[in-house]
Write a structure and sequence with these properties.
Elements: H1 3-13, E1 23-26, H2 30-40, E2 48-51, H3 54-62, E3 76-81, E4 85-86, E5 92-93, H4 100-109, E6 110-118, E7 131-135, H5 140-149, E8 153-156, E9 167-172, H6 179-187, E10 192-195, E11 197-198, E12 205-210, E13 213-218
Parallel strand pairs: 1-2, 1-3, 3-6, 6-12
Antiparallel strand pairs: 4-5, 5-11, 7-9, 7-10, 8-9, 12-13
Helix pairs in contact: 1-2
Bound molecules: ribulose-5-phosphate.
Residues 27-32, 81-84, 94-100, 103 line the site of ribulose-5-phosphate.
Length: 220
């Protein structure tokens, strides 16, 4: 199986976590796209979906899945999304697709975060993947200096504007020994909208696809 087939296997396994008659939170990226395509086959069983990006909203709408504005949704049982890296504690780096802020918001409303990944995303220590940080444009240089002071090398993502009209700094070379602490420290820099560490609230379930099947791991 190639990587895309593994992503699809993890995504299809996540359909078992979708509750009939309820709203499902939907992530962003190539793995989430497989989930959206799978969701289309059971769309008559669910109430609808909340999307974490314009791209996912468009794909869901293309399949005829009813979309809800998050402001009209009080709770949802599950949020399903991929990750760029995930560790044994189910803390993640997300935001490779630049949708980290909306992903964090939609996930916050859901009772459970189901992460869908191919096996390459599992790491012993987070930080090999550059950490995305969404910043207000006027704060770009200030935030970059503060991120450098934390030991990282921030690089502006070229030709990219988030769905919220902001910029992304991808921070290379961070030694992430305390993911939740670093998540908070970066959030406290003035001008940061959010960062791609999902550690204070990581995944609850990881569906990890490898050649021999999809393994289900729970947050320890
Ligand atoms: C988008 C994300 C994605 O979940 C992450 O980048 C993984 O993407 P893919 O499923 O394409 O490997 O956080 O902002």
């Amino acid at each position: 199986m190639n990587q895309d087939e593994l992503k699809r296997a993890a995504a299809i396994a996540a359909l078992d976590y979708v509750i009939d008659g309820e709203i499902v939170g939907v992530g962003t990226g190539s793995t989430a796209n497989h989930f959206i395509d799978g969701l289309a086959s059971i769309k008559d069983r669910i109430c609808g979906a909340v999307a974490s990006s314009e791209a996912s909203a468009q794909r869901l709408a293309g399949h005829g899945v009813r979309l809800f504005d998050l402001n009209d949704v009080e709770r949802m049982p599950v949020y399903v999304d991929g990750a760029d890296e995930i560790n044994a504690g189910l803390a993640m780096i997300k935001g490779g697709g630049g949708a980290l802020t909306r992903e964090k918001i939609v996930a916050a409303v859901a009772d459970r975060f189901v992460c869908i990944c191919d096996a390459s995303k599992r790491v012993a220590r987070l930080g090999g993947f550059p950490l995305p940080v969404e910043v207000i444009p006027m704060a770009r240089a200030h935030v970059a200096r503060r991120l450098a002071a934390l030991g990282g090398e921030p690089r502006l993502r070229q030709n990219f504007v988030t769905d919220n009209g902001n910029l992304i700094l991808d921070v290379h070379g961070l030694e992430i020994t305390d993911p939740a602490g670093l998540e908070s420290a970066i959030d406290h820099i003035a001008g940061v909208v959010s960062n791609g560490l999902f550690a204070r609230h990581g995944a609850d379930v990881l569906l990890l696809a490898a050649a021999d099947g999809v393994e289900r791991l729970l947050r320890p």
